[in-house]
Design goal:
Chain lengths: ~290, ~290, ~290, ~290
């Protein structure tokens, strides 16, 4: 089947302090085992001479079986290099993604549309919200919707519930679709570089609450949105995707919110897409995002 | 002559707290004196109900002479409205612009090229620099180039010299073409909303020194430039023009600087163009910029 | 109620050969009847001296009642001007929009999401498709979904059915959400400037079928989408909205299609939004689109 | 010296029908001779399975001398692969670029500014124009300026003169800075993929004369510019760089021309920069342009 063929591929994401022969050793390793390289992108960070690489290869005639591949690469990396970070992934991976949402629909509906139309190869085992408002859209797609209200007093207990649900459903990725709550440091620590938030400004400009109002008051000529990994520093995690649109004196705050919804949902989807397709390397609070 | 015809026009920039009948009174006034309105743009700020308008009209059959126009408008405004701010300008105005520059050529050369090719209808009576490096380009266009080095100790005296030169040359507008000095509060107070700076980031992100390095380190996916009026708060004056370009992991700081030069010069020129064509209203540390 | 207040407004869209005093006469007319102008944008086409204007005013204290307004404006226009085209609209208009769709979901789901979340103030009385594939999404929102298959032989009869349905449901606007059929000249004649199509290229480049493949083969560095009114000349009607994104050698046709879906849906929505908010004037196979 | 260090590098541009082991063989070859790979970008065309690669490596400890490198690579390629196209280049290459210009200054001045400020590492041995208008700017930089007027009758003879001059000055690249003449097929054949033109539209839209007027009349919402290699099919050669800006009803043709100048010069410079930095592979009337 053609569909299967095109996704019987492996991906290796690598970064480390620059060392001699990384590329040639790895390409030799793949070649020795009959792996046809389909795409390779390698560069060096100009400031601290850090090496980054993404390579994707065909597994059809590859002579190492999937079940042994992780171990074989591990042996190879240990033998050849020091302090190398690598991540092995497969094209046919189906990430299990949880959506957190509050009351704004636009990003949420956009994600569900991509899911329903099979635009993305993902599973959505559950949706969690601090409000009951958006239950219908979940239920008609047969996705369990958990209403977990958060107050100042119950936050710790409710986050515990959330974590338990994520664990039970074996979640790979949490996406905050305009979820209006701040996650605790403890919560975040369970999903490092696995929680993606959409912030409605071109960060680092206008961090925190009500960025459209701040942008309006500052009189900027562009507004934007940013998808980023969540860290314990609010709105300061590694940026995955951004986009901007021009604004003018005719843009009231209300109009900015309306136009902003469209950038938010597109940038959010772009960031998630890069993550679930193993296109992102995180390093030093930044990301390398391959096309 | 066609060229003259198209510029025998007047422009009125108006803003005030919203009052009844501003538009109809003004358009009636122009109509009563046979002024054909060529373009009018009016809107209200949605937050504080402030009224803004720009109107441009043909003077060919206008029955008030130029020499009387300012006074007649003044009478009219005082009679009809309270606390109205207005500025009368003419299309054939030739602003006298001083360039301040240090050692970076790109914005400077770009301005001189526009001047030499008569792309802009301006005069450049003088150029001031704290270095002697870029004298040649000034002299071949017969523009006086004043080398006024600034040190911590002589700054006050040298600024005094600069102000004297600007006054002598009857300067309307000062543009800082990557001039690497911070102007004193006193200097700025002589040219309110008449000094335009180019900052190499999409403000308010990355204010201050070395914004490309800051942008690189934050890992943003866009870089930009901002043309703004200079106020005593560094990099916080009213923004006139901005633009951005996307960047990726392949953009080293060096490459950002190279690519940045092109946005800087285009955004700077765009901001200056809007100013010298009477397209800008400043209000509350923001600008309304008409197309 | 605040919500009602903000939409008790009228809008006048005007165009005509340039004549003296249009603006002052109209603003006087509004002022005479106590209409507070909230926004006015007026310009003249530079090539053929055609006058265009959009004015929006508050009706709260306006002394002409809605039921008489059309007639009063008609009288006024006839008295003052010759060959003037004008359209009166109200902010609280709820357009009745029919969606035509085939098998692609992305634009269709996006429209339904905007409808469901009440982002747009519209009614969708029916959806028509030549396939039965996308019925579910319609039915869960209680929108009648008509499956009207089109073949070479039955096209005329089926279009007759479609027109009958549109008439019965009193449709104001038809939007083709990647509807893969070409409408007949007769069909189009019933809805002049009332059918909006989304084409997946930056027209006029790559008209006709499979524009992504054509763009790939030509090796352009940008791809785009265009929302336009449908005329009998395929892909040549007045353009309402466009957008583009940059592409590189890493963009296969497959990837272009994936990325294209997002521009298509945003540009389509932008075009429709402008239309249903009375922001568009059509003239000479072009549009003036107010912000 | 730091400056020299950073440019003692070689670049290999490769394309061919896909074959096994290209990447591993080449990286092995470089590694075997102690060449540290600084950047490598490899991908496969999805439509016809063509392989493309750009690799840049450090020559400091590379064990093959420059004078032997071409031959050694030739041997290696012939031994390992069939029908492979490759181009070897060096980072410290100083291309010799001829400018052709007519009467428009903006692109021309922009190129000269980059040259004068040493932004680009090039030589400009001569400038050729069919008018004498822009001689001054050439002469003050001591660049010979040849005035070679073209008429219908003398075109063949004048092109012969031009070719002779290019040959004498050992020109690597010809850039047409809004040169308003169409080059003959014969002329072009001497510089395949070595003549870069700037066209003032986003090709393939609005080929030929007066594209701003055509864009205005079609009512597009974006205008653009395209840098492309010149082939005997007018405006149809491989596109190297493009950019666009949004336009509205306020953009007259005159205003489009004014705003267009800035995109033209930036896109032109971008295309030339990619070429002189060996970032371009031409294939099937398209280009692969590396970042």
């Amino acid at each position: 089947m053609k569909a299967n063929t095109s996704i019987n591929r492996a991906i290796l994401l690598i970064h480390c302090a620059d060392q001699k022969g990384i590329l040639s050793n790895i390409s030799q390793f793949l070649s020795d085992h009959n792996g046809n390289i389909l795409s390779l992108d390698q560069h060096e960070d100009s400031e601290d001479h850090h090496f980054f690489m993404r390579v994707e290869w065909d597994l059809h005639e590859f002579t190492i079986e999937r079940k042994n591949l992780h171990e074989r690469i591990d042996l190879f990396m240990n033998e050849k290099f020091t302090h190398i970070h690598w991540h092995l992934a497969y094209r046919d991976w189906v990430p299990r993604m949880a959506i957190f949402v509050s009351k704004y629909e636009h990003c949420y509906y956009d994600l569900l549309s991509r899911y329903e139309s099979k635009e993305w190869n993902i599973e959505i085992p559950l949706i969690i919200s601090n409000h009951d408002k958006l239950r219908t859209a979940a239920e008609r797609l047969n996705i369990p919707y958990y209403h977990i209200p958060i107050t100042k007093d119950n936050k710790q207990a409710q986050e515990h519930k959330q974590l338990e649900l994520l664990r039970l459903h074996n979640i790979d990725l949490v996406v905050l679709a305009r979820y209006m709550q701040i996650l605790s440091k403890n919560f975040i620590s369970h999903y490092p570089n696995k929680i993606i938030n959409i912030h409605h400004s071109f960060l680092p400009a206008f961090m925190g609450a009500d960025p459209y109002r701040s942008a309006f008051q500052r009189g900027v000529k562009f507004m934007g949105a940013t998808a980023h990994y969540v860290t314990s520093d609010l709105d300061e995690g590694p940026i995955i995707a951004q986009d901007v649109i021009s604004i003018s004196h005719r843009d009231s705050i209300k109009r900015m919110k309306r136009r902003g919804r469209d950038i938010e949902k597109i940038v959010f989807a772009k960031g998630i897409w890069s993550h679930i397709n193993n296109k992102v390397i995180s390093y030093k609070n930044k990301t390398v995002v391959y096309e």
